[in-house]
Amino acid sequence: MSRVRKVFITVKTYPTLSKKYDELVCTAGILDDGSWVRVYPLPFRKLDYENKYKKYQWMEVPLIKNESDPRPESYKVVDIDKVKLLDPVGAERAWAKRKEIVFAQNDVYSDLTNLIEKANNNELSIAIFKPTEILDLMVEETEREWSSESLKLLKIKASQLSLFQTEEELEKEFLIVDKLPYKFSYRFRDCNDKESTLMIEDWEIGMLYWNCLKQTKGNESEALELVRKKYIDEFSKKDLFLFLGTTRQFHGWARNPFVIIGVFYPPIDNQVPLL
């Protein structure tokens, strides 16, 4: 049975194309009871413009447990037309309200091995991780275009659902997000001095790359340096946390089933609380 729940959005991954679900983003956040929730699949392209939700925003969503996904935090939207956006939470007082929502009911892990064990026991599939040290931002070139097979299937589905639209209207509806030509990963060390490398799938790093590419007038090398400056230089001065999520394919058995689905970087708060 579905239930309307409030979700505080903390994670929105960069869109991918799926043969089953069309264009997707994996969305995750904090439920109104303080626990984690993954809302997947959610077709970002099909939402009305004003319903293109942002990070650190509350929204009401009719949810039901996703029985086809064994991960404990996974739910699905019953009716996308009933998704309602609520107020965003700003960054006032060193992100105080955002931190209150995120940390109130959730542990912060620093031991990656312990976290992997919990995931492989299906105790969790989303967690907050505090790296001891960020060592590098790894950049790997990848395919520059969506596969022709995925695009063809997506366009067929769009046309089947839009029998009464003109070709011009259909082309406008078919607009999709550009594919990132690079993969970004953090190399880091945990509390046991263990080094790991995890891919960053956050929407934010994808949009940062495109904005930097525009800023550098199409110079990819310079754009990548600007991305590195933010994720290494600027974030080193923040109180950095990583939101980790397992992929469904590797959940429950892989040596490391996690990817970085979000980066949480409040400023370091040096204020001494009043007694």
Give an account of the 3D structure.
The protein is an alpha+beta fold. It folds into 2 domains: 3-93, Beta Barrel (OB fold (Dihydrolipoamide Acetyltransferase, E2P)), CATH 2.40.50; 107-142 and 179-264, OB fold (Dihydrolipoamide Acetyltransferase, E2P) (Beta Barrel). Helix content is 25%, strand content 32%. The chain contains 6 helices and 14 strands. It has helices at 92-103, 112-120, 148-160, 167-173, 203-215, 220-234, and strands spanning 3-12, 16-18, 22-31, 36-42, 57-65, 74-77, 84-88, 108-109, 126-129, 133-141, 182-189, 195-199, 241-246, 258-264. A 5-stranded mixed barrel has the order 1-3-4-6-5. A 4-stranded mixed beta sheet has the order 8-9-13-14. Strands 10-11-12 form a 3-stranded antiparallel beta sheet, covered by helices on one side. Helix 5 (203-215) crosses helix 6. The model is unreliable at 161-165 (pLDDT under 50).
